[in-house]
Design brief:
The protein is mainly alpha-helical. The protein has one domain (16-145). It has helices at 44-48, 73-82, 88-97, 110-121, 126-145; strands at 16-21, 24-28. Strands 1-2 form a two-stranded antiparallel ribbon. β1 and β2 (24-28) form a beta hairpin. The radius of gyration is 16 Å and the shape is globular. 24% of the residues are buried. The protein binds iron/sulfur cluster (SF4). Iron/sulfur cluster binds at residues 56-58, 66, 81-82, 85, 87-88, 91, 104-107. Residues 57-115 form the 4Fe-4S Wbl-type domain. Its cofactor is [4Fe-4S] cluster. This is Transcriptional regulator WhiB.
């Protein structure tokens, strides 16, 4: 087999995530959640439009903060910054729709996002799932600040 041959068992790569400039993450998206219903939330086209990331708070702060373990002071600080971010809803929607595996997105850790992704995959509309996620994130942030 040549180095360029693929086998039928090799799963397609869903997406790549590259850092174009410090703090500026660009994603080469793959497939969204199957059967996605975007009702009440941003459209797939809007999520794929990279301009929404321009206002991201994490574009001007050390991005490693967002990839710390979730119970560290650094991670809690990153989550608190997400709550000041003007694109938090888009960020969370994007992470859920494209199943972002790593790091804090929209103020939620990967393990906090998994149940929301499952809801999306089971046909629940994005708007409702997104509201749940944002509420959960707000509650967690308030408890962390208390
Ligand atoms: S919500 Fe958080 S992770 Fe998402 S773009 Fe804003 S600061 Fe970055």
């Amino acid at each position: 087999m040549t180095p360029f041959e693929t086998t039928p068992r090799r799963a397609p790569i869903a997406y790549d995530r590259v850092q174009a400039t410090p703090g500026n993450w660009l994603r080469n998206y793959g497939r969204p959640v199957q059967g996605l219903d975007t009702a009440g939330g941003p459209s797939l086209q809007a999520l794929l439009e990279p301009n929404w990331m321009r206002g991201a708070v994490c574009a001007s702060v050390d991005p490693e903060l967002w990839f710390e373990e979730s119970d560290t002071p650094s991670a809690r600080y990153a989550i608190s910054l997400c709550h000041e971010c003007p694109v938090r809803a888009m960020c969370l929607a994007s992470a859920l729709v494209f199943r972002e595996e790593y790091g804090v997105s929209g103020g939620l850790t990967p393990s906090e996002r998994r149940p929301l992704e499952t809801r999306l995959a089971s046909g629940e509309a994005l708007g409702g799932v997104l509201s749940l996620g944002l509420s959960h994130s707000d509650e967690g942030n308030q408890q962390g600040a208390a």
